[in-house]
Amino acid sequence: MCGIFGYIGYRRNAASLVFNSLKSLEYRGYDSWGVACVGEKIHVKKKAGKIGGSDVNELPASSIAIGHTRWATHGGVTDTNAHPHLDCTGNIAVIHNGIFENYDEYKNKLKKNGHEIKSETDTEVIAHLLEKSDLRTVFNKMEGLNAVIMVDSEKKRILAARNGSPLVVGFGKNENFLASDASALLPYTRRVYFLEDDEMAEISEEAVFVKSTKTGKVKNITILSLSWKASSGKKGNYPDFILKEIYEQPRILSEIASSATWAAKIAGQIEKSKGTYLVGCGSASYAAMAGTYLFSKIAQRHVNFAVGSEFGYQLNFLNKNSLVIPISQSGETMDILESVKKAKAGGAKISCLVNVLGSSLYRVSDFKMLIGAGPEKAVASTKALTGMLAHLILLAYAAGGKLNEGKAAVNGAVKSTKNVLSDKSVRLIKKLADRIYSARSIYVIGRGLSYPASLETAIKIKEISYIHAEGLAAGELKHGPLALVEKGVPCIAFLPDDETYGANLAGAMEMKARGGFIIGISFKPHEVFDYYIPVKDAGAATIIPNIVAGQMIAYYLTVKKGLDPDKPRNLAKSVTVK
Known about the structure:
This protein is an alpha/beta fold. It is 34% helix and 22% strand. The chain has 3 domains: 3-226, Glutamine Phosphoribosylpyrophosphate, subunit 1, domain 1; 233-421, 3-Layer(aba) Sandwich (Rossmann fold), CATH 3.40.50; 422-565, Glucose-6-phosphate isomerase like protein, domain 1 (Rossmann fold, 3-Layer(aba) Sandwich).
């Protein structure tokens, strides 16, 4: 979850570069930050709170620096607990992602031996252990999933080790880089290597050596080339990343439809399997859920769905004939990775749908599908989520032997999405936000494919506007949730042009009868609607423009409340700890 960046080279001011790169990682979520640069000694600047504009000016020019944005686990949000942490001599600085589970036993020994430990963190213990030992030895003592980065004022190099928490090395000319997220490297280099579990890197200006943390032997590595554009990670003329990413969706969906040659191959894997399982967390879980409806409706094939954090408890039935399709924007979600590794150990084949080339999930998978959404900087997923859905639509049609129909369906979603994003439609959504932004709760209903659309719309509203929102299967209203509907409560109803229309309409009427303010998102108006947002029909792919309408509602609710839609409180882009 935390952000890491490191630089070594003589071409740039290391402290300034690392500081600015930490800003590019703010979307990962953090509550404190810090930078250490190496000269004759190590200079550290770290603070609780957001990164300021001129804080780095207090650090001297240097050729080596590491930086960190922290999400508190061990110890509160204070300047002292922020990373980097120093050893007693002040010659070693450490930053760390993950949880050093057995730090306590070493902390007590260090204190008895006279070490002064100033913070409440597990990370500072690592710095003190490194005073009389090397990184490989210390790292192998650590239990849990961790990434550790260190510099020292004598050896003047960056050392890093990883097990579970992501690290990417970037290669330049007479300079090299290290980051927790490949997108942060784009302004400087496209040539990268993603460290595997139980690997460490020794990084100097001229060279990078990757070694096994178990044996210490140097390993041969293959450097990848990132295809993303650096401009993709900039706001351009948009006020927020999330709005930029929402408006990028028609182009991305069109590109996915035009490059669907992969679909037949993966469909063949599904055909061969004796059980296919779609797995995701957060928004990706709703895409996975939608996949079960799509395969049933389009390919007449049963596939299973599980939330990533729960899938690890449902693996006993997997075997060599099983196919697991994990879905993830980052490819670094810890709950997904742990489950997938267990499934693979049980013989199952893994076919990932992921947005980041070279990510941990990408590397562990037998078959790979890249979403192709480009860097997604806002914490709340938009374009990656609809990209996932487009891939699943194409895959379902391919499994049914109708790939060309799938392409037509996604292109229909492109046209409908453009209409949702038209000036006329946006004006309607803004007026709606002005009307309901003070609501304490919002309820969203749907059936069939509109049920995961309801869940996704609700989580977007919760994530960025902080309004309590619940996505509900419309048929479940009378089984409890209807008790929550009272006069004036906003109720969003998805009513696409499919077999669920009449039953969904009945749910909207039930909420209306209890005083609910009914917001209809549909291909046609109805007298039960108090407010109507039109979405043109796109067949089974209508779920995409419906979700885009939900994204826009969530966005303008957030803006109306004066909140930051890119960096919601308490959340991070990549959940890399359990």
